[in-house]
Amino acid sequence: MIWRGFPVFGLVLLAMAALMSIPAIYAVALGDWHIAAGFGYSMAVTAIAGCLLVVAMRRRAENAGAFGEFALLLATLAIAPLAAAAPIAAVMPLLGYEVAYFEMVSMITTTGATVFDRLDEVHRAVILWRAVVAWFGGLVALVMAYAVLAPRNLGGFEVRGDSGRTGAVGRLSGDPVWAGGKPSEAAGGRLARAISAVTPVYAGLTSALAVILLALGHSPLQAVVLSAGVLSTSGVSVEHGPASTASGFFGELVIAVFLVLAATRHSYGGPGRRPFRFDTLPHDPEMRLLFVIVVGLSAWLYLRHWIGVLELDEGGAAAGSLRALWGGFFTVLSFSTTTGYLSADWESARQWSGLDSPSLIFFGLAIMGGGIATTAGGVKLLRAYALFKHGARELERLVRPSSISGAGARKRGLRREGAQIAWIFVMMFLVTLAVAMLVLSLLGMTFENAMSAAVAALSNTGPLFPATTGGSWLTSVTPEGRIVLVVVMVLGRVEILALIAMLNADNWR
């Protein structure tokens, strides 16, 4: 893809080099010159590679077809991490380049599958670099939704009945109304407009959360890393364990609010859109479905814990029951947005009840995912909503076969064509998941570990694997398995339906 005569991937490498200056400066501030030199040399090499690519491909004709757009996306998610892994491999040579590459792919795809089992032994500049790459990956996901997926009826927009567009899935037909786009706008123009619309809001929300967490008692590094992990839904953190140990309940409450903002496209404004307002969320079908899922499962988990307490004859302490209720609510919300943070009260509530962790519920939440045009992964809430409405309509027809569907043409389109394409995507998602599980099993993983790793990678919910199996991405997965999971993580971020549309030569023009 070309923008104003410059190859976009070359600009991506230059942006990656510029981002390396952040941990380099931080290492200098800490007085660790060896770490700073590793980031500095990697920054210089990446910048030189980006400049050479820009000079070599400058002034070429722009390719606005699907192939060029998705080739850029795949290069950003699969090739750019090679550059991002260079400083980690330089400052941690015993780790190996393959492991560092896996770490960076998991960050840029907002999966957050970290290979570091003891984060307290990892240099703080490396931890900051992980958060920076994860934040950049979230920005890539949002820009991709604006500039690539939405104009081509992909990424969940293929099921919308009120998109204001016509055209086949994968065929360029102009941006939807919410993105304020022009019909068949050039790829470079769409990309620039998406960056200008998304970046201020995305950076502003991240900064706001960091300031609030800093005021609540977190260290500057904790606040920055945690805010990047929340807004990018990568689940990256400074230490393993609960999301907010420094600020307790109030910190988790603030994080929960920003998780909701990260899970809806309404948080990110665009040209021609109204400013964000909280009263618009109840009218969004995705947010209504998210509310039902989180509240319903939290209530079920609360009753499950409560029954466990009664069986153990531990009494009914109000404080303990409220902690169990909040621990379930926060954890369910976190996995629903494919972030994967655990509440500080989750483990205590589980031990208090004497019951095992409901891993299958976590699998279901991660697979369902968050909203369309967000940093969340998974199937997406709008597709699940379309299937739910279609199922409800079919049940109604069983009771009253002569009934006529109302609610307008848009909602009828959501229940019919939208549900059909959503079902196709779900089937492709499950087939991809089954293939990934089979390959991982052939590489020596147990069925439980293979299933957990495949779900975590395809839904971009990296913390799911250690949370459900107690395993490690470094020791529980072979190097060959990590290479397979790299492919699965990229597929989960790009979506298999988008790749199939890219392979259709009719959409290349």
How would you characterize the overall build of this protein?
By secondary structure, this protein is mainly alpha-helical. It is 64% helix and 1% strand. It has a two-stranded antiparallel sheet. Helix 7 crosses helix 8 and helix 16 packs parallel to helix 18. It is globular. The chain starts with a strand and ends in a 6-residue tail after the last helix. About 2% of the residues have low confidence.
* Proportion of strand residues: under 5%
Globally, the shape reads globular
Order of helices and strands: EEHHHHHHHHHHHHHHHHHHH
The number of E-state strands comes to: 2
Arrangement of strands in the largest sheet: 1-2
- Tell me the structural class: mainly alpha
Uncertain regions: pLDDT < 50 for 5+ in a row? 162-166, 175-181
Largest sheet: 2 strands, antiparallel
| SS field, number of helical segments | 19
Radius of gyration: 23 Å
Round the mean pLDDT to the nearest integer and report it: 85
Helix content: 55-70%
Distance between the termini: 13 Å
